[in-house]
Write a structure and sequence with these properties.
Elements: H1 13-18, H2 30-48, H3 55-79, H4 89-109, H5 111-114, H6 117-133, H7 137-144, H8 147-178
Helix pairs in contact: 2-4, 2-6, 3-4, 3-8, 4-6, 4-8, 6-8, 7-8
Length: about 180
C-alpha cells in the first residue's frame, strides 16, 4: 500500500510553528529571517514592555522550544526530510536564547548596555556566525544528533556559545567606549 503524503496546509499549526508563520518559506536565507524575527520581537518587547521580569521571557523560550521540537518532528515526518531549510523555529528560539542570556548578564554588570540595540545586534551576528558556520560542538550536534531534537539542539548550543562571545564583546565595548 503506497500512501502518498499530503503537503502541510499553510494554516496547519505544524506548518505555522515550524516555519514561524511562513518565514521559513522565504527562498533565500530563511534561517537568518527566522532569527531576525526573534530579534525584532525582542527589540519591541524591550522598548515597549521592558524586561523587569525575566520569567515571562524564559517561559516564552521554553514554550517555543517544546513546540519547536514537536512541530519540527511532524514537519520532517510529513516531508521525509531530516532537516528542511524551511523549519526555522530553531533559529527563532536560538536567537531568543542568545539575547536573553546577554540581557541578563548586562542587567547585572553593564546596565547601560542592557537595553541597547548593540546587545541585540551583537547577539544576532554571533548567533548567525555559529549557527551557519557550525563551529565546534555546534557542528558535532548538527551531524550526530538526528531528528527534531537535533534540529533544535544545534541552535541552542550555537546560542549559548554566541552569547558568551557577545558578552565578551559587550564587556570590551563597555571598557573602551563607556568607561
Amino acid at each position: 500500500m503506497n500512501s502518498k503524503k499530503q503537503p502541510l496546509k499553510i494554516s496547519s499549526p505544524i506548518f505555522l510553528i515550524a516555519t514561524v508563520f511562513g518565514i521559513g518559506k522565504i527562498p533565500f536565507m530563511p534561517g537568518t529571517f527566522g532569527a531576525l524575527i526573534a530579534a525584532l520581537e525582542f527589540t519591541i518587547y524591550l522598548k515597549l514592555v521592558g524586561l523587569t521580569l525575566i520569567f515571562p521571557y524564559l517561559i516564552h523560550i521554553c514554550i517555543f522550544l517544546l513546540l519547536g521540537v514537536v512541530a519540527a518532528h511532524y514537519y520532517c515526518k510529513n516531508t521525509d526530510n531530516e532537516d528542511p531549510s524551511e523549519v526555522v523555529i530553531d533559529e527563532y528560539v536560538g536567537q531568543y536564547i542568545a539575547q536573553i542570556i546577554c540581557f541578563i548578564f548586562c542587567s547585572f554588570y553593564i546596565e547601560k548596555l542592557a537595553t541597547s540595540y548593540l546587545l541585540i545586534i551583537i547577539s544576532f551576528l554571533f548567533f548567525r556566525l555559529f549557527d551557519i558556520g557550525k563551529i565546534g560542538i555546534v557542528g558535532y550536534c548538527d551531524k550526530n544528533i538526528k531528528g527534531a531534537v537535533g534540529i533544535i539542539l544545534d541552535d541552542v548550543v550555537a546560542a549559548i556559545i554566541a552569547s558568551a562571545f557577545a558578552i565578551i564583546s559587550l564587556i570590551l565595548i563597555n571598557l573602551f567606549f563607556y568607561a
